[in-house]
Fold this sequence. Notes:
Elements: H1 2-9, H2 16-25, E1 27-31, E2 36-38, E3 46-52, E4 54-61, E5 64-72, E6 76-77, H3 80-83, E7 92-95, E8 99-105, H4 106-115, H5 119-143, H6 146-156, H7 166-173, H8 177-190
Antiparallel strand pairs: 1-8, 2-7, 3-6, 3-8, 4-5, 4-7
Helix pairs in contact: 2-4, 4-5, 6-7
Amino acid sequence: MELLLKTIQQYIPLSLEDEAIISTLFRKQKLRKGEHLLEAGHVCKNIFFIDQGLVRYYASIDGEEKTVYFNKEGEFVCDYASFLPQQPSLTNIQALEASTIYTISHANMEVFYAQVKQGERFGRLAIGEVYVDAIKQISSLYNDPPELRYQTFFERFPDIAQRIPQYYIASYVGIKPQSLSRIRKRLAGTN
């Protein structure tokens, strides 16, 4: 719970009363490696916070899995396109390793906004950050060559690259694993 509170405090100040409210709204959960937090076709009913572990977001496109994002310790996890309107998700969210998370339901998030002094401000700032990240990622996928997307991946996730299988990294970058190997060799030769 300590990491969760520190992360929220990066957005808003918290009083002891706010911290007490938050501790009643989130619940701790353990996930096994490979377990899904969300499966496509289901409504995302929770926002998750990773205390320990790593997850990936992926979608099935033309029968093939496409990894679209990763989250690690100290980050919130959610398919906001499903969570906010409470509509079925097109995305899967899967634990890449055994993980400890805190979850808050859609209903409890509304309580958070109402009872935590600057709760609505937190929601606005956090969603704004998610939106900007999503736009940057989409823009990169359409405009940047694979080598630059791979370099951007390492800038965004330097501390977890060794924890992610290479085929998921290749999928995230938008290339086949063989192409990723060639890019890695080229980049290693320029250093």
